[in-house]
Amino acid sequence: MTRQSFDAIVIGGGLVGAAIAYGLQRQGLATLLLDEGDIAFRASRGNFGLVWVQSKGLGAPHYQRWTRGSAQEWPKLAAELKERTGIGTGLQQPGGVHLCLSEEEFGKRGEYMARLQREAGNFGLEYRMVRGAEARDMLPGLGPQVVGMSWTPYDGHASPLYLLRALHTGFTGAGGTYQPNARVEGSSAAPNDFSVEAAGQRYRAPRVVLAAGLGNADLAPRFGLEAPVRPERGQILVTERTQTVLPMPTTTIRQTEEGSLMLGDSKEDAGFNLGQSPEVMRKIAQRAVLSFPWIANLNLVRAWSALRVMAPDGLPIYDQSERFPGAFTANCHSGVTLAGTHANRLAPMIAAGALEPGMAPFSARRFNVRSAA
């Protein structure tokens, strides 16, 4: 007989939902993970794979701390998943760089990083602006167009697909229930008493977590929540495999464990259009070749686009329902970077029944001017 009662239901089987479900199950909560399947706009399959700190949180120190915290949690999460599942996530954290192709870019980047450091306050932020011979010692093969770069020791990268597989395997291995092809067809909400209809079944739990990416916009009001998220298209190019040549990732280029180079970082307002633009692809390739001219000798073997989950201010939304306690929402566009905090910090809060006070700046109420005032 199919189990229908759980301690928690997580809606959304991508990187965000899987990390939270894994964390809840590890906390001892019998958790159901509902995954809509391939009809969903799968942001996870298009994730670039950076574990990135240095470009996050300008004007939002709480987000900078949350991101740094996740980078710190990542080694523990990766080691635990490897031990429990035998699946490596490909995590490497050698630091990372943002390349600047003009003096103007370098100057603006220096100002950006200095402001991030000031906003970090006592929390601190270690970074360096690197030029010339030192930059080329750190990254052999840099092109003459590269004026310099910013570096921080916190950054790294991992495989989004290996991570997703490890989280799912770790979740079910710990006793979690995974239901694929389970689009939410109906629901009801009362304080600490929720029911969800999916895959022809009705499930109940005192906690429900909305982690369905762009689908949260429609789901949230059913549970007394708001998720004003919109799609932002990003495109990625992938080269053939080559010898290991990049000792650390950049904002727009990283080398996978298998040897391929991933090139990306486009940001497009294209609605829900998952198509690809030759002009955008040309710009991605052009910047990559200006950064490392030897990339021009590699063949491109794959290209795709995916939709990021973006709030109006670009920051994550984490919220709990005042009307229906026990209902939570998690929305972000950094499912790989934030996997550490989602599994190791956010999930324990949800298990305890409430978000910690320090999470208040992430609430969607920040978009309601009257409430924020």
From TrEMBL:
Transmembrane intervals: 6-24
Keywords: Membrane, Oxidoreductase, Transmembrane, Transmembrane helix
GO cellular component terms listed in the entry, alphabetical order: cytoplasm
Range of residues in the leader sequence: none
SUPFAM superfamilies listed in its UniProt record: FAD-linked reductases, C-terminal domain, FAD/NAD(P)-binding domain
Protein name per its UniProtKB record: FAD-binding oxidoreductase
Annotated PANTHER family: FAD-DEPENDENT OXIDOREDUCTASE DOMAIN-CONTAINING PROTEIN 1, SARCOSINE DEHYDROGENASE-RELATED
GO MF, one annotated term: oxidoreductase activity
Species for this entry: Teichococcus coralli
Domain named FAD dependent oxidoreductase: residues: 7-347
UniProt xrefs under InterPro entries: FAD-dep_OxRdtase, FAD/NAD-bd_sf
